[in-house]
Each structure stands twice: as structure tokens, then as C-alpha cells.
Amino acid sequence: MANQKAGFHTTIDIPGTSIPSVAFGTWKLGQGQQSTDHVEQAISIGFNHIGEYTAQAYRNESEAGIAIRESGLPREDLYITTKFSGRDGLDIETSIQNSLDYLGLKYVDLYLIHAPSLAVPDIPTAWAKMEKLREAGLAKRIYFQPYILSTQMPIVEYGNKYGIVSEAYSVLTPLTSQPGGPVDKPLQKIASRLNSQPEQVLLAWAKSKGVVAVTASTKKERLEGYLAAGDLELTAEDIAAIDAAGLAGESRLTLRKVLRRAAYITLVGGAVVAACTFMGIRVL
């Protein structure tokens, strides 16, 4: 494996296989040569798991495939994940074949259902189709992707108990999309103590949960920092503090959505009453 280093270059073992514990995703890379270049860069500095965000919906599987081939690494040295996204209204069977064609591969190591709403007509039927893909050798592993921290954690804990590995996508969201939230304080405190960066602490937290962390960046130095995050040792108190802050942040976001919806309903209601009054219609 090229440029193997310490840190996040560990694997999570499950019956019959192992999964690299950090992955490089292609979600926001776009299409074209720049996407290929960024995937090549990630592979060159040591990322050997390309995926989770390598999905049909992001329309850059071809670019990822070019980077994979140009890396010169044997297929077995790379772990490739992609997702069924319902692209162009195609079914699961057609979609994975298209993905393999775009990627230039005979199989993917992991195939996911991108969102619960895509399991049509229902989860058991969709899952049966996924199992047939695995039996045909098109995907070595299959998985269904849940959402929301409060519902994810019981799933992660259950999985850890029974040898089922979960992946954490967008694990850096509290820093990149929700700055100033409750998670910032414990991350800053821990990072200062460990002489590291907050994003490294958050990745180390994900690793402590026994999950595969999926992240991305176009900057080489950040990617190197992400890999080095695997060397951080968090205490039980560190992990508990981040857990509590994350749940507090989720509650705050939920409240914000409720208030926003209430304000919208109030505005719409006020507009309706005003219109009715203008037209001489009694509403009460």
C-alpha cells in the first residue's frame, strides 16, 4: 500500500473482512479534472478507502475511477464504497452496474442505500435486491444508511456488540457547517491539551466509537492532519463531553426548526387573515 503511515491507517475488523477506519469522500468535489486530481492527491498521501461520498447522486464516479486506475495500486489495496442514489429513476440492479462501469471496476467493497426514502417499495424488498448483488459478487458488503445522532448511537452500539460496523459521514459538520455550537467548547479545550486541531479531535472521537470516519478536503495539509488524528488518545471524559455537546446541539437545531416553522405558519396565517379582511370575508 502506497505511502502507508501511522495514525488513521488502521482497520476495523468484522467477520470475514476489515474496513479502513477513515475514508476520503467525493461529495463536494464536483466533476471534471479537479475531482480526479483531488482523489489522486488523497490516495497519494495514504487514503486507501475511497467512498461513502463516491455516490451516483454526485455524478463523479467516473472521475474517481480515473484516479483509482492512475494510482497504479492493486485493486485489493483499495477499499471502494459507493451508494445507490436512485439516479435518473433507475433501479438498484441497473444502478450498481452503471456505477461499476463509471468506476471501471468489477466490484465495490461496500454498497449503500443512500437514504431511507430510496428503499422502495419497502426496506425488505430493497434489501433483498441488495443481497442478490452481494451474492453475484458485485458488492462485497451492503449497508443501509440511517440519519440523526439520537437514532444513530443506539444503532452504533448495537452494531459494535454484534460485529456490525457503522460509517460516520460528514463527521466534521459541527465545525464546518454549525460553528459556534455546543461542540466547539469541548473540542477547543481538548485540542489545546493535546496540541492538536479541533477537527482532529472530532475524528479521534469518531474512531473511539468504532466507526469508519468519512471526510474530505482539497488541501493536502488538512488531509495529512486528518490521517494523523488517529494517533490522538481521548479519555473517557473527553468522549463523554463531546457526546453531551453533540446531543445538546441536535436539540438546539430541532428547536430552531420548530420555531422557524411556527414563525412561517404565523406569517402565512397573518397574510390569509389580511387577505380575507380586504375581501370582506369573515374568518372568525
TrEMBL record:
Site residues by UniProt (Lowers pKa of active site Tyr): K83
Q: Which GO terms describe its molecular function?
A: oxidoreductase activity, acting on the CH-OH group of donors, NAD or NADP as acceptor
Q: Where is the NADP-dependent oxidoreductase domain?
A: 22-142, 184-245
Q: Which residues cross the membrane?
A: 262-281
Q: Which InterPro entries match?
A: AKR, NAD(P)_OxRdtase_dom_sf, NADP_OxRdtase_dom
Entry keywords, A to Z: Membrane, NADP, Oxidoreductase, Transmembrane, Transmembrane helix
* Annotated binding of substrate, by residue: H114
- Keyword DNA-binding present in the record's keywords: the answer is no
Active site location? Y58 (proton donor)
Domain of life according to the entry: Eukaryota
Family indicated by similarity: Belongs to the aldo/keto reductase family.
Q: What is this protein called?
A: NADP-dependent oxidoreductase domain-containing protein
Please tell me the species this chain comes from.
Answer: Fibroporia radiculosa
